[in-house]
Amino acid sequence: MGEIRSYRDLVAWQKAIHLCKLVYRISSEFPDRERFGLTAQIRRAAVSIPSNIAEGYGRRRTQDYLRFLDVARGSLCEVETQAVLAHELEMIGVELAREVDLAATELHRVLFGLSESIRNSSEK
Predict the structure, then answer these.
(1) Confidence (pTM)
(2) Closest Cα partner for 68 from 81, 53, 79?
(3) Which one, of 62, 49, 59, 55, lies nearest residue 116 by Cα?
(4) Is 104 a residue whose pLDDT tops 90?
């Protein structure tokens, strides 16, 4: 594992960027009437994930960092919910819905690990 010199080195941030690009790709297939509805909502939530990981990394206090990771996790739950809704409203097919679900599940795992690592290192 390499040295972490920037938030860009964090696997969580990299996976969040991947998910964000995926969300932009799938939401481009949403109907035009959803441009100010679900399209905007899911994109905002997706952008919030890597943004909060980066902002948390830039904070000086461990508790602030953990709080921003919690916000990122909440935004991730929003994206998952909105992708389910998009699938159930037949805006995206089962394959795209599954791709988002897999990426989100992996990101949940990585965010949990990052949070635990930060907690454990702050207790030493």
Answers:
(1) 0.94
(2) 53
(3) 62
(4) yes
